[in-house]
């Protein structure tokens, strides 16, 4: 073997490994509609074997399960087993919180598997004066104490991503970050309109870093296992699982009538998967969820499968990496994820400046999923043109394109509460 041959073989091995892991340099993001490739949208009402679905019973019996199983095994990943035990403990309660406007509870949820445990805290506000209230359940990004300036809300101890603007350093939340994300949670307005809020810091379920050693996954490992198997869950599926474990408590709280699951950005992806996997959620809201959320993969607009697997290799199952930069061979698309939530109410929201999340792709997903809602006699999105900015479409399936950037605003919450009053309350 020549010296050149000795060099080439290791290089080929490295390139092959990087390609398999989805870690090769990614093409620049496309923001030009004229460069969106021609693609075929998989028909949600035609089975993988080519059989046409004509009614809701056939959908339930023949099509829904095969779509669900594909997403479960090839995209988000399968939960490997059942828990051995779980528990709930109300660790703090004040019936006159927020100047008497709310009842506040803080509940520790305990999960146990293979003699290993994980705990996370739910912050719950319920409006005073209501016998029962509907509740929005959603994750927050940096700790329950960031969504309110309420001094009694517990600061999490779990790993936290550093953020100078939010006064988080050394991967640890402190008192300095209390209330820094209040603008994303219209808590007073929720309470005034008869809604409650339940929120959880997502890092208590699974810290958002490419390390499967210190979150929910590790409870389920066999001896010497250090990461999920190829078709097992990534972080998005773990966060969705955590939402369902929060629901285990909420559905038994006698002051709660129903629960609408909500999520923004990566946590919007988790909310959609939670809604697809757990029909106890009475409604689902996806806010700017983008690639791997509501946006169509096959448009290759903004963030793509290659980009997301390269930047966040822990979010999806390992098996999903084979579709990096190969959207054309994927036999499903995200409108079918939305369809799995039917006939329950679903709201998808975009922001006009959030091109990375592909607002048009999010809108088209709602259009293509609407035919499944139609099987149940529910109204989806029948608008053929891209909607005007700040002009919501509110049916059982709802959509709006908001002015502004990637964020959650008071405008968004106003639309969600108006919609929930009719369709999801």
End-to-end CA span: 72 Å
Numbering strands along the chain, what is their spatial order in the largest sheet?
A: 1-2-3-5-4-6-7-8-10-9
Number of strands: 10
What value does the average pLDDT take?
A: 95
Percent helix among the residues? 25-40%
Overall spatial form: globular
Indicate the CATH architecture of the largest domain: 3-Layer(aba) Sandwich
* CATH class categorisation of the largest domain: Alpha Beta
Report the biggest beta sheet as strand number plus sense, adding barrel if it closes.
10 strands, mixed
DSSP strand content: 15-25%
SSE pattern: HHEHEEEHEHEHEHHEHEEH
CATH topology of the largest domain, which one?
Rossmann fold
Count of structural domains: 2
Instruction: Please give the radius of gyration in angstroms.
Output: 22 Å
Structural class call reads alpha/beta
Number of helices: 10
């Amino acid at each position: 073997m020549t010296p050149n041959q000795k060099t080439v073989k290791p290089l080929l091995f490295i390139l092959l490994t990087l390609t398999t892991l989805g870690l090769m340099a990614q093409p620049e993001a496309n923001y030009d509609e004229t460069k969106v490739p021609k693609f075929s949208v998989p028909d949600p009402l035609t089975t993988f074997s080519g059989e046409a679905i004509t009614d809701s019973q056939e959908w339930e019996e023949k099509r829904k399960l095969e779509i669900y199983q594909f997403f479960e095994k090839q995209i988000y990943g399968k939960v490997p087993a059942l828990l051995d035990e779980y528990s709930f403990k109300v660790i703090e309660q004040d019936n006159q919180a927020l100047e008497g406007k709310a009842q506040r509870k803080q509940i520790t949820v305990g999960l146990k598997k293979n003699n290993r445990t994980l705990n996370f805290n739910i912050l719950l506000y319920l409006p005073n004066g209501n016998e029962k209230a509907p509740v929005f359940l959603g994750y927050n990004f940096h700790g329950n104490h960031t969504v309110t300036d309420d001094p009694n809300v517990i600061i999490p101890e779990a790993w936290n991503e550093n953020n100078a603007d939010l006064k988080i350093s050394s991967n640890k939340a402190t008192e300095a970050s209390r209330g820094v994300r209040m603008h994303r949670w219209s808590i007073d307005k929720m309470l005034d309109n008869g809604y409650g809020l339940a929120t959880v810091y997502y890092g208590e379920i699974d810290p958002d870093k490419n390390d499967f050693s210190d979150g929910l996954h590790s409870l389920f490992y066999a001896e010497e296992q250090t990461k999920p198997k190829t078709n097992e869950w990534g972080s998005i599926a773990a966060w969705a699982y955590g939402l369902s474990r929060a629901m285990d408590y909420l559905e038994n709280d006698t002051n709660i009538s129903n629960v609408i699951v909500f999520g923004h950005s990566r946590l919007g992806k988790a909310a959609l998967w939670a809604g697809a996997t757990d029909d106890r959620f009475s409604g689902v809201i996806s806010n700017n969820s983008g690639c791997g959320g509501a946006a169509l993969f096959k448009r290759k607009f903004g963030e793509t499968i290659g980009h997301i697997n390269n930047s966040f290799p822990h979010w999806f199952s390992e098996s999903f990496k084979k579709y990096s930069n190969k959207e054309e061979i994927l036999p499903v698309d995200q409108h079918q994820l939305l369809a799995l939530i039917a006939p329950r109410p679903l709201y998808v929201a975009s922001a006009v400046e959030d091109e990375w999340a592909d607002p048009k792709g999010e809108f088209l997903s709602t259009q293509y999923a609407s035919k499944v809602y139609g099987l149940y006699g529910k109204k989806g999105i029948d608008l053929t043109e891209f909607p005007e900015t700040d002009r919501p479409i509110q049916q059982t399936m709802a959509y709006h394109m908001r002015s502004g950037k990637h964020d959650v605003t008071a405008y968004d919450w106003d639309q969600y509460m108006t919609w929930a009053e009719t369709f999801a309350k």
